[in-house]
Specification:
Layout lengths: L2 H8 L3 H33 L13 H28 L2 H33 L7 H22 L3 H15 L2 H11 L19 H33 L4 H10 L1
Helix pairs in contact: 2-8, 3-4, 3-6, 3-8, 4-5, 4-6, 4-8, 5-6, 5-7
Length: 249
């Protein structure tokens, strides 16, 4: 086992990660504020009006980042859950649990802003469209995580049960992403692609990317802050925590 492997395993310990997370939270929080302010400025004051949707299109500066983060957070959560199942590490379950509320929030935000956007564009608040339905299923998966964890008293058993649900549910992510290609839907196709030039003005793209970075930084800072609380709750009888409390008092 080389030195790099030892160093990585060191941060798998809740005691070590608790301190690391505490030092990282302010940096990511400030980055979220700065990117968010810049993204809102570009999106609502710099980007031009859309030729067909007028000013109403500006909700995409909230809707698109929220939609991306709802899927990204679930994949990261499932990754932590899979690590917990494979290596039986305590921190993995804690990180997966810490990500769930933020993922649920972004999924709900994506659905709400999508409805607000859909009403003037489609003439209705909701349709059982493939993209919308699969995104709604994603919200149910997040809520299922919360309910399942609350129903099991033993924390390690809850971690394993939620990990299985997370890994199984990850199959819904490609369904959401490719739904507009696999089925005929009202939802428009992707305006941003890795293989084609974006079909929007560069200032619009810049606003979306800045807001996405803000959402990303926010998610990291909140997840790290939440996992510190989870560590305190689960490790309250640990010797290292008692020493930490004595040192800080």
């Amino acid at each position: 086992m080389n030195a790099h492997t030892i160093r990585w395993y060191k941060y798998a310990s809740p005691a070590t990660f608790y301190d690391l997370a505490g030092r990282m939270v302010p940096w990511f929080a400030w980055a979220a504020v700065l990117f968010g302010l810049a993204g809102l400025w570009v999106g609502f004051f710099v980007a031009p009006s859309d030729a067909t949707q007028g000013e109403g299109y500006r909700i995409i500066f909230l809707h698109v980042p929220a939609s991306w983060m709802s899927m990204f957070i679930y994949v990261v959560m499932a990754g932590w859950a899979a690590l917990g199942l494979a290596f039986n590490t305590r921190l993995s379950g804690m990180m997966a649990a810490a990500l769930v509320p933020t993922g649920a929030m972004f999924t709900a935000l994506a659905l709400i802003t999508g409805s607000l956007w859909g009403k003037p564009m489609w003439g209705t608040w909701w349709v059982w469209d493939a993209r919308l339905t699969s995104e709604l299923i994603l919200l149910f998966l997040y809520l299922g995580q919360i309910a399942l964890r609350a129903a099991i008293d033993d924390e390690r058993r809850a971690d394993r049960a939620c990990a299985v649900l997370a890994v199984v549910g990850v199959v819904n992510i490609p369904v959401i992403y490719f739904s507009v290609q696999w089925w005929n839907t009202l939802h428009q196709g992707a305006s941003i692609s890795f293989t084609h030039a974006p079909s929007m003005a560069m200032t619009m793209l810049l606003g979306i990317l800045l807001m996405t970075l803000a959402a990303w930084m926010y998610s990291i800072s909140v997840a790290l802050a939440r996992v510190r609380v989870i560590i305190l709750e689960r490790e309250h009888d640990s010797a290292w925590l008692g020493q930490l409390m004595e040192a800080s008092s």
